[in-house]
């Protein structure tokens, strides 16, 4: 496998640290770091199996949308919340690339996908990650496939169609062993305790971002965006 396709937990932690530091200074989150985190994290799924990676391929697409919107409004704002506020003022928050003509009643921005909708879906993905990794740590004899399935059913399935839920089932059945997950997450020849410690460190770095996003969406009544 190309080195660029390998999961790098230290790089992941660096991106999360940068995002959290940006928030402390600006009360907002940087689009680039959040987008890059998603891209880098999905390399874990890629190494764990094609079906698992395919199940989360839309996360890569959403990462690009986050970075694109950040670049598009870079001169007006440096943060994700700032972009969402601009979209709100322009009536763009509900755009998904398919409903644009119906909402805008014209041919402008026909392919625009909003930051607001995208981040809402990423928050749900963050919920999935937290549930999954906490279950890995708490239930140390539980099969990883069952952990993936249970986390999906709680965090993501309620928002997916019947077809998507069925496709996800195939991915969970093909999920690898806990040993394979640990080897990918922290590297070979590491103890299980080292893996559990790394997982806790990851969850602790992601959790403030997840909570702050949820707080922003709840405060601004954005949790029901279509």
UniProtKB/TrEMBL annotation:
Q: Which GO terms describe its cellular component?
A: cytosol; membrane
Instruction: Please give one Pfam family short name.
Output: GLTP
Domain Glycolipid transfer protein span(s) in chain numbering: 38-184
A Gene Ontology molecular-function term?
A: ceramide 1-phosphate transfer activity
PANTHER family attached to this UniProt entry: GLYCOLIPID TRANSFER PROTEIN DOMAIN-CONTAINING PROTEIN (PTHR10219:SF43), GLYCOLIPID TRANSFER PROTEIN-RELATED (PTHR10219)
Name under which the protein is recorded: Glycolipid transfer protein domain-containing protein
């Amino acid at each position: 496998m190309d080195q660029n396709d390998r999961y790098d937990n230290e790089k992941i932690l660096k991106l999360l640290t940068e995002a959290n530091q940006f928030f402390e200074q600006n009360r907002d989150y940087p689009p680039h770091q959040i987008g890059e985190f998603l891209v880098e994290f999905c390399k874990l799924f890629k190494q764990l199996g094609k079906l698992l990676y395919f199940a989360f391929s839309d996360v890569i697409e959403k990462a690009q949308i986050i970075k694109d919107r950040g670049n598009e409004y870079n001169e007006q704002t440096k943060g994700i919340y700032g972009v969402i506020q601009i979209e709100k003022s322009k009536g763009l928050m509900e755009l998904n690339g398919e409903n644009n003509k119906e909402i805008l009643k014209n041919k402008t921005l026909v392919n625009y996908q909003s930051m607001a909708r995208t981040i809402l879906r990423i928050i749900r993905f963050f919920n999935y990650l937290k549930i999954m990794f906490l279950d890995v740590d708490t239930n140390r004899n539980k099969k990883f496939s069952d952990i993936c399935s249970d986390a999906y059913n709680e965090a993501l399935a309620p928002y997916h169609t019947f077809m998507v839920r069925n496709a996800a089932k195939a991915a969970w059945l093909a999920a690898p062993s806990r040993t394979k997950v640990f080897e990918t997450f922290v590297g070979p020849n590491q103890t299980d305790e080292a893996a559990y410690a790394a997982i806790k460190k990851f969850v602790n770095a992601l959790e403030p971002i997840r909570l702050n996003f949820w707080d922003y969406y709840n405060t601004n009544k954005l949790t029901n965006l279509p």
